[in-house]
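From the pipeline queue, job 12 of 40. The input is one protein chain; the requested action is below.

Action: predict structure.
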Amino acid sequence: MKRAVALLGVVVLAGCGTSATSGSQDLAEGKTFTMSVAADPGSLDPALTVLSVARQVGRFLYGRLIERTSNGEIVAGLAEKWDATTTTATFTLRQGITCADGAPLTASDVAANISFVGDPKNKSALTGLQVAPGTTATADDAARTVTVTSAADAFLLTNVGTLPIVCAKGMSDRSLLAKGEQGTGMFTISEIVPNDHYTLVRRKDFAWGPGDWQKDQQGLPEKVVVRVIANETTAVNLLLSGQLSAATVAGPDQERLLAQKVDHVDNATPLGTLSFNQSAGHPGQDPAVRRALVQALDLAQVGKVLTTGKGRPSKSLVTVEPRPCTGDNVTPNVPAFDRAAAASALDTAGWRAGPDGTRSKDGKPLSVKLLQPTVVGPTLTSTAELVQQAWQGIGVKVEIQPADAAGINQALFDTGAWDASMVPLTLSLPSQLVPFASGPVPPQGVNFAHIDNTEFTEQSKQAASLAGAAGCEHWNKAEAALVRDASLVPYFDAVVPTFVKGARFTVSDSLDPASIRMLAS
């Protein structure tokens, strides 16, 4: 059951979280909720993006068959009833659901959404991530039922149940979806100014919110404005001046808000993550090089710089609570800090230092392009410099390659022009790791590091045949295998607060639109 994947500033959906409140203030009518995001979301087609900012905006626009409350309970969304195993699921739609343009949503429309993502030829970003390849769905419009058939998926109910659902016109013309149209959610898009703001208007007829939702509730925002603000200092200034209702602040500017006791909700995310390009011709193809590069880093110190001392050592890539599988898959498996041992391992692997100290093998220098996100927070820059210094200290030539959201996507999923990456990958379910760490590589898949780890593949296959927590032993072994061979190394979690003024809301994988309540001044 899907709850949250983040790649870069990326979230894929359906999890649990906590709420941000502002005491017992009275609720206010007719207000606008304004939130900041660090990057422009680009295309809003929910089947063709994994960018977290696009997924967050899309959550306002596109409904889901089921919802999960902040305590993990599954409740009604577009569906009023459901039943599932690891290979089949059935959903019964609520009566009276309509699209943003007033057209009725049918069971056939929902089935088409699921089958589209399940068909690999459509190249959905969610194929293999949220819906298993080959998944199909059929419909009975009279009974309002959708029946899903899938390969074994331990979390089938939530994975399929939290797929964003679009309407028939959007399925036939996906250019409409890229603009946020043809939705089934609580809001419709009214204005897009790229790289500046997105304005959304609440649907007064929306009656299929989570659980026993009532449409005439007090405090619901009339509008939502999503402002693109890359600079966290600017976002904090706007929040303090009342021009923003909510802002997620990962960097040191959060101190100003904490000092003023501004309400916030915290989410843990593995901000410190290293991956290595294992495709032919890249240094990371050699596991000895990968392990040496990790071993050369004092990850505790790197993590403190990355999180300004507010983070914690990672135990897993899965951080969203409640975690389906507990345990520490990182600490026993990550190479311990030992610069001399790292240098010796490179010697053994044939990478010898030259007169200038730079290592080479067969005439080729050991050179690493380090991909550094610019939209996750300002500490990534100083962290990249610390990593660069450590690797240069063992004879590796390092070029830091800063990249925004578009540049990250281009490097990882298009050009492959990177060697090591600091792009964080955040999961709420262990099954979400499978397409990132096995199977097809870009452009056919999202295995951006070209990982081919036999133990991971075998253990994840065994785990996928078992429902929920029954597969945890295998999921844990699969993740540990990746850390052990330095394919994917989470090393430090950031505790990232989303601050709020003049409103309250719940975060469950991302900010839940149905939970927003505006407060009287």
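Job complete. The first helix runs from residue 52 to 61.
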